[in-house]
Write a structure and sequence with these properties.
6-stranded antiparallel beta sheet, 5 helices, endopeptidase fold (from Nostoc punctiforme), 179 residues, globular, alpha+beta
């Protein structure tokens, strides 16, 4: 039996190929980042290809999409959490806002850590930066994702159907930042 989350707890959701993060608010509801339109399927790795996200207030069960989860306040030993009432106030103030999204510089883990600790940090992006930074292409308006096991005619849907995903070695796919 999983422990019941408390207001302000961070929820780590184990999706295929990545982790999604939410912050527990109350009565089995969480706040999390979601794609701004149906262009990207909620709960799919393809949602990481958007450069914007909407802050959603949703039932935890609806955010899981059948995936496992755990309470993960792993940075409590490094940073002092803000008072719970402040975490909840800041979190509720973000509901329905459109925010900038970046897999490396502003993902859902950055978002929830900022709300709980006041610190914009993601361990997912630290891994990408440390391992891949020397390999990433630089320059005008491009994002780089490192992919493994995808064919030359790669697309988000074909990669998913063939079991491809985000990895830290292999080929690069360049995406226009404003796409």
């Amino acid at each position: 039996v999983k422990p019941r989350p408390r207001p302000g707890d961070l929820i780590e959701i184990f999706r295929i190929g990545y982790e999604h993060w939410a912050i527990y608010v109350e009565d089995d509801y969480v706040v999390h980042l979601a794609p701004p339109s149906e262009e990207f399927e909620v709960g799919s790795i393809t949602s990481v290809f958007s450069n914007r996200a909407v802050v959603k207030y949703s039932r935890l069960q609806d955010v899981l999409h059948g995936c496992s989860w755990k309470i993960n306040n792993k940075l409590d030993g490094t940073y002092l959490p803000l008072p719970v009432d402040k975490i909840i106030q800041r979190t509720k103030n973000m509901i329905n806002k459109i925010v900038q999204y970046s897999l490396i510089e502003g993902n859902c883990e950055h978002f929830v850590n900022d709300l709980r600790y006041g610190v914009h940090r993601s361990q997912q992006d630290l891994v990408v930066q440390e391992v891949c930074a020397p390999l990433l292409p630089h320059g005008g308006g491009e994002k780089a994702l490192v992919l493994m096991g995808t064919p030359p005619e790669w697309s988000p849907s074909s990669a998913l159907s063939q079991g491809g995903g985000l990895c830290l070695v292999a080929r690069f796919l360049r995406l226009e930042a404003d796409a």
